[in-house]
Design a protein that fits this description.
Blueprint (H helix, E strand, L loop, with lengths): L1 H14 L11 E7 L5 H9 L1 H8 L6 E7 L2 H10 L4 E5 H10 L7 E5 L1 E2 L3 E4 L15 E4 L6 H14 L11 E3 L2 H10 L4 E5 L4 H6 L5 E5 H5 L5 E5 L1 H6 L1 H20 L1 H12 L5 H9 L4 E2 L6 H10 L25
Parallel strand pairs: 1-2, 1-3, 7-8, 7-9
Antiparallel strand pairs: 3-11, 4-11, 5-12, 6-9, 6-10
Helix pairs in contact: 1-4, 2-11, 2-12, 3-11, 5-14, 11-12, 12-13
Length: 333
Amino acid sequence: MRRSIIAATAIAVLAGSAGPARAEAAVIRGGLQYGFSYLQLILMQDQRLIEKHAREAGMGEVKVEWLTLSGPAPLTDALLSGSIDFAAMGLPNMITLWAKTRGTLDVRAISGMNAHPLFLVTRNPRLHALQDYGPDDRIAMPSVKISMQAIALEIASSQMFGAAEWARLDPLTVSMAHPDAAAVLLSGGTDIGSHFSAPPFQGRELAQPGIHTVLSSYDAIGPHSVSAITTTARFHDQNPKAIAAILGALEDATQWIRRDKRFAAEAYVRVTHDKTPVDALVAMIDDPDIDFTRRPQGAQKIADFLHRIGVIKLRPESWKDLYFADAHALDGN
């Protein structure tokens, strides 16, 4: 299903993609998902940073629209259909699109965003390691098969059970947006007893007695970017000023978070209406395992795994193959 959805969508886009070149975009449309992983983009929204850099580049009053979606699958559809111009996309999704769109839409990333661990948490006292999961132990995550959480679980399964057993726990996974999955886990009212989560939801979940961590994505992958700012070659090449405005805004937001953690946390609450206390969000930003950085991390390791299991037929020779030249000086891996 992972392959057929992306391939079918790409074919549909290509069938209607021909047309004359357009001038620099007067409207820039960005996509993201729910969660603290997108703090830089949320600060960019709150402070209208893309608009600021666009004015400074002589683009005039550019309108920026933001679309928040429940997981990587709808984000993929939005990017490939042209409903959005760029997306904060999980590395597995970006890498899969890179392989599927080579020579056509040429989807690649222009920057990393941040690096932090994702936790598989559970309320089930019986579950302390992957080998404890049985056929009735459901795991919620943003999207099965293609989300960062899904691939981290597959990599961890291959390490725990053997290389050929990478999909052993896939039948247990259920697609569910983070806010819904957190509500389900905290309520205890369904058969979904685990959530492969993300900040701030994993912090909120772990604060409840009886919920504990089974796995960190860092255990499986090591330090990794959660998302990359991803776009098509067409938008990238036709809109150099817009790309520069996005990157300038992202750099501003990254430095702002480092400089004023409380302001960034307040902006997150202001934009998302999240109920996490500001002090708790500040503590998350202060967590030494959370690094707000544009440096790409972990892409090559994930690409190697996706190639080994046959999700992508083409293996990148370097992480730089997955990123436009805008990111090549960022010392990634």
